[in-house]
Design goal:
15 helices; seven-stranded mixed β-sheet; five-stranded mixed β-sheet; 40% helix; alpha/beta; 421 residues
């Protein structure tokens, strides 16, 4: 580890490194914070340097560009952001994108080819599931899925099915894609079991990717459990202020380099202003997520005792022994996004949502403000009814993302809203 990342051999924590990693004020007139570099292109020191950079950008020489070339490929704000994102997950490399879905789509497109099979957990965020089922299928890529809480034996069976399907199609199992906790149910996937099953059936050449948006980067580090690639909607907790849209992936350089090559071609890199805002937000992500998590624990304690509440999908109150075991091995905290199951159905949920005074009726999560939505009729409306039922996305489910307001005020808001149910 370099001196910049440690003091007398003591590794510095991510919350400390967020204040300066990847930026030298001497290179920017002594500016304490990085300027926003609003430029489309960069001047080369010499023609030979330009040639060398393009050899890296195009893949003619391994390792990528040695310097700045063009803002579709790389730029200062994005590189600083990517350096800092990698730190949180203990990753070798990271890539930023214009949205979480851009990150996920470019990742899947990089590794999937005609005849291939993607194995994924369920539920996934509806747009991810739709991209796999509706769009990749147009190019001869199919999928096999398994429920989030599947056991090792169930995962083994799914991988055997996927291998047989890939063989029939003349392809391979190209990726295992997970989302844990799952949106919106908070169901957890046993990443360690998935890795063991992958190693036994497929070998390490098939990457395991995981959407870590709900708990990362503070409360879960999937790379430690055996995942190869971690994906984020940075719009959520990392951005954390409901004022930007961005995404990222992180992992070993061998997994990132092919994705970088496709991003170079397609575009989709995070813009410099958004990258600058994300670097600002990373300085406080630990504080914000801790406060929101403390608030969620208090709010859920209240909701769990309310007579109009049928149940909670909150990781601090797991009732299933298998899910609790996964939580104990994988998670460092319960997070602040959960599902609230009301007694009733859509009508009761709508009355509750329409009566909120502090919490905002809006999709998304992980912001400083508390948000509430109805997944079955909003974010997951496009999911077929029978699949929604199988995944537990019911008409009486409200997704709540707790913010950093006063917790007693939030409890008062939910109390009065529940009076209308």
């Amino acid at each position: 580890m370099s001196d910049a990342n440690s003091i007398n051999g003591r590794p510095l924590k991510p919350s400390t490194l967020m204040m300066g990693l990847g930026f030298d004020p001497k290179l920017s007139e002594g500016s304490l914070k990085p300027p926003i570099f609003l430029t489309s292109t960069f001047a080369f020191p010499s023609a030979a340097d330009g040639k060398r950079h393009f050899e890296g950008i195009t893949g003619k020489r391994p390792g990528g560009a040695d310097g700045l070339v063009y803002s579709r490929f790389n730029a200062p704000n994005q590189e600083i952001l990517e350096d800092r994102l990698a730190i949180w997950d203990g990753a070798e490399d990271a890539l930023s994108f214009s949205s979480g879905m851009t990150a996920i789509c470019v990742l899947l497109l990089t590794y999937a080819a005609q005849g291939d099979v993607i194995v994924h957990s369920g539920p996934l965020y509806a747009a991810t599931e739709g991209f796999v089922a509706k769009w990749l299928s147009k190019f001869g890529v199919s999928y096999v899925d398994f429920p989030a809480g599947a056991s090792r034996e169930e995962i083994d069976a799914v991988l055997a099915k996927a291998k047989a399907k890939a063989s029939e199609q003349g392809g391979k199992v190209c990726m295992i894609y997970l989302e844990s906790p799952a949106n919106p149910t908070n169901a957890l996937v046993d990443v360690e079991a998935v890795k063991a099953a992958r190693d036994a059936a497929l070998g390490a050449d098939c990457p395991i990717a995981i959407d870590n948006t709900f708990l990362g980067p503070l409360w879960q580090r999937p790379l430690d459990q055996g995942a190869d690639i971690v994906a984020y909607s940075l719009t959520k907790y990392v951005g954390g202020h409901s004022d930007l849209v961005a995404g990222s992936i992180a992992g070993a350089k061998k997994w990132m380099d092919p994705v970088r090559m496709l991003r170079n071609t397609m575009g989709g890199i995070c813009d410099p202003n958004t990258a600058w805002m994300l670097c600002r937000s990373l300085e406080t992500v630990e504080l914000r997520m801790q406060r929101a998590g403390e608030n969620a624990a208090k709010v859920c304690d209240y909701l769990s005792k309310h007579p109009k509440v049928a149940g909670l999908g909150y990781l601090g109150m797991i009732t299933d022994a298998r899910q609790q075991d996964i939580y104990d091995r994988h998670c460092l905290g319960a997070g602040s996004t959960f599902s609230l199951l009301l007694k009733g159905g859509e009508a009761e949920c709508f009355r509750f949502l329409d009566s909120l005074k502090i919490a905002k009726l809006a999709v998304s999560l992980g912001g400083t403000e508390t948000l509430a939505s109805h997944p079955a009729s909003m974010t997951h409306l496009s999911v077929p009814d029978e699949r929604k039922a199988a995944l537990g996305i019911t008409d009486n489910l409200v997704r709540i993302s707790i913010g950093i307001e006063d917790p007693d005020d939030l409890i008062a808001d939910f109390e009065q809203a529940l009076e209308h149910v």
